[in-house]
Amino acid sequence: MSLHLEAKLGEIAETVLITGDPLRARHFAKHLQNAFCYNHIRGMEGYTGLYKGKRISIQGTGMGIPSTALYLHELICDYNIKCVIRVGTAGALQPTLKLGQIVLAHQAMTDSGVVQHYHKTTGDYPEANQDLLQQARVCSKESGIVLHEGTIFSTDLFYAEESNRYQTMVSKGVLAIEMETSMVYAMAKYFSVKALSLLTISDHILSGEALAAEERELKTTEMLTLALEVALRNEHK
Ligand SMILES: O=P(O)(O)O[C@H]1O[C@H](CO)[C@@H](O)[C@H]1O
Ligand SMILES: O=c1cc[nH]c(=O)[nH]1
Question: Domains in the chain, start-ordered, CATH in brackets?
């Protein structure tokens, strides 16, 4: 048991899928066999079950870097997890991206002041684990689920008032914006844990179009399938 998770030692698998919405974790857990809920503290549900015979956990983290960093710290330092795959949603920044498409985040820029606590170098950005990136490409090819690969941006501020806020990101070719990946990649590297982030486009920053809540659940299932296949093939070294 840790401060915010009541799972017994051994109840959380070495590979954990994380997602902002704890109800999405509950929904995703329906894709596992024999899944059980190991955490109810603060309603931040977490489940462990089997996918094609492999133990996998799915944990809600809440929105944003502070909440995600707290759960990820406890998962790594108190429950010894070895691999984390974020399955989240993001806003598209490039006109070529369509609602429901999936982004594979190579690296994540950020405006957060706390990521530097774990990512101490300047001039580069926290990156995905290369083995997991490669596995995601293989799974994408085999399943026919298309991935859009590139840089994303993790922000601390969902709503911002400047009209030109996204201009630089768009012109630099940043694919999408969300609120956690930069810290997930930075912490994972710091603690020698593997990390990958898959993001379903839930809205379009440029056009304002957005998926309805029920559509969002439907569209995120493809991303979940891909994440489970990556998790299945991942070996801990
Ligand atoms: O769908 P999730 O994983 O919550 O991710 C995105 O959605 C939330 C904002 O609506 C932020 O957490 C953002 O990163
Ligand atoms: O952080 C996020 C997540 C989804 N869509 C956005 O526009 N921002």
Answer: 15-233 (3.40.50.1580)
